[in-house]
TrEMBL record:
GO terms for molecular function: DNA binding. Residues 21-67 form the HTH cro/C1-type domain. It comes from Pseudothauera nasutitermitis. This is Helix-turn-helix transcriptional regulator. SUPFAM superfamilies: lambda repressor-like DNA-binding domains. InterPro entries: Cro/C1-type_HTH (IPR001387), Lambda_DNA-bd_dom_sf (IPR010982).
């Protein structure tokens, strides 16, 4: 399963910038639908396109492995 670290990246950026960052702000800046961001942040196992991942990496200025983590099925809680 892929785990998206969107919430962690948002929290890090909020801390660095000393302000609240909304999903709407990210959506507008990155060119991604707000609903897609909400699903990424809250829905386990949500499926996204590589274009969305590319845009988010560009927005957060991060590498893909900072945004997405692979967790083998046997490590997932049942």
């Amino acid at each position: 399963m892929l785990r998206f670290r969107l919430k962690e990246l948002i929290a890090d950026r909020e801390f660095k910038e000393g302000r609240v960052i909304t999903l709407l702000e990210i959506a507008e800046s990155a060119g991604v639908h707000r609903i897609t961001l909400s699903k990424l942040a809250n829905k386990k196992g949500y499926n996204v396109t590589s274009d969305v991942l590319d845009r988010l990496c560009a927005y957060f200025n991060c590498r893909i492995e900072q945004l997405v983590e692979y967790i083998p099925d046997e490590q997932m809680p049942s």
